[in-house]
Amino acid sequence: MNESVGVRADPVADRIVHLTQLEPLAEERLAGPTWDYVAGGAADEHTLEDNVAGWSRIKLAPHTLVDVSHIDTTTTLLGHALAHPILIAPTARHTAYHPDGEAATIRGAKAAEALYVQSSLGGTGLTEVADAARSADQPWWFQLYIQRDRDWTQELVERAVAAGATGLAVTVDTPTLGARDRDKRDNLGAAAGAFYPILDGAPVLPDATPAHRRIYNPHLSPNITWADLEWLVEISPVPVIPKGILRADDAHRAVDLGAAAVMVSNHGARNLDTVPATVDALPGIVSRVSDRVPVIVDGGIRRGTDVAKALCLGATAVMIGRPVIWGLATYGERGVTHVVEMLRTEFEMAMALLGAPRLRDLGPDLLWANQP
Ligand SMILES: Cc1cc2nc3c(=O)[nH]c(=O)nc-3n(C[C@H](O)[C@H](O)[C@H](O)COP(=O)(O)O)c2cc1C
Fold first, then answer.
1. Which protein residues are within 6 Å of ligand 1, measured from CB?
2. Is the pLDDT of residue 38 over 60?
3. What does the pLDDT look like over 213-270, one tens digit per residue?
4. Which residue has its alpha carbon closest to ligand 1 atom 20?
5. Tens digits of residue pLDDT in 74-133
6. Residue 240: what are its φ and ψ, rounded to 5°?
7. Residue 350 domain-assigned?
8. What residues contact residue 287 under an 8 Å CB cut-off, 6+ apart?
9. Measured on CA atoms in the order 221, 241, 132, 72, is the torsion positive or negative?
10. Does any domain span residue 196?
């Protein structure tokens, strides 16, 4: 018998073979308010469920008898040569999930060759993010929440770019947070300011409204408008990418104003419940702007077939949010790498089984609904 058969080489990879296996393990580690914050969506969580379910509603139509002995997932995105089109979405407070926080995520991303997007609400300061990214030689974009004070916001953009950010994902779907019932029950947010070193020093207005009647958040500007997007495009030395677009007309307007790409997202279903799953918003946006800019989509992507479907529908790349946190919380940097690698491997398998060995082979004809 060949002795190498069955050898256990990697204690993580040998046991964890798909993404969702990590979810209950992460829940054990983070049980309580931190888990509620990560797992939760807005209100009744209809969209939360739909984000994941939406991808599986779409049926695939594989070509047979295609030579798939070489699978090529390389692509370019706003000047970055990427090994594959799976990005790490910006999520807040990685230090709450693992003691090494964002630094571990950055190293994990590097090993998985995944572009990393740093949240404004990170648990690690920009200097430390920059150090970790520089020493890992990891490219990253910065996710911006425009602050009430625009001068301070401009300084933040300048600091992020000086720290090495090569793109600016400006979140446009969050003038305030959604009805996050789980967090309300946990009274999360009572000490909000203290958690966010990147926003340290941002002038915030005191809000005397009693908690149960409060809508606004001190770190989110409720008066951001198209003029702010235009302004950001003007002042930013790096490409500006609005994150959180669901409507085709908004995508079109953003591109007219100079957006370098568009992120189709419903914020992981954390803001406005009953908006559509992102898979349902994607085609309209693709048909309006994908001839001009790359379209990136996130929300509920858990399987390689989901990635394949996103690209068949015209996305250039996808982002994953919660699964990265699951990986980080359970196995630290190794877990982050493993999450991306599992998804990437499944994606490559899906490409092989679809008879689509290159990304440009992934098109609408591979979706069952479009059968001739
Ligand atoms: C715990 C958590 C924190 C998040 N923090 C941010 C954030 O700081 N800024 C932002 O633009 N989006 C944030 N998001 C949304 C993600 O960037 C992304 O849109 C979403 O997680 C994708 O859906 P998925 O989690 O189903 O993959 C957060 C999501 C989660 C789950």
1. 37-38, 51, 89-92, 119-121, 143, 171, 243, 265, 267-268, 270, 298-301, 320-322
2. yes
3. 888 888 899 999 999 999 999 999 999 999 999 999 999 999 999 999 999 999 999 9
4. 268
5. 999 999 999 999 999 999 999 999 999 999 999 999 999 999 999 999 999 999 999 999
6. -105, 130
7. yes
8. 248, 314
9. positive
10. yes
Check: pTM over 0.85? Answer yes or no. Answer: yes
Range of the domain at 167: 19-370
Under the banding of pLDDT at 50, 70 and 90, the label for residue 182 is confident
Residue with tokens 């919380």: 329
d(CA 290, CA 251): 10
Protein residue with least CA distance to atom 6, ligand 1:
91
Q: What is the dihedral angle through the alpha carbons of 85, 91, 97, 99, rounded to the nearest 10 degrees?
A: 90
Asked if residue 14 is part of any domain, the answer here is no
Strands 80-82 and 75-77: antiparallel
User: Is 267 an active-site residue?
Assistant: yes
For residue 72, give the CATH number of its domain. 3.20.20.70
Residue 314 lies in a domain: yes
Q: How many distinct structural domains can be found in the chain? A: 1
Amino acid of residue 269: A
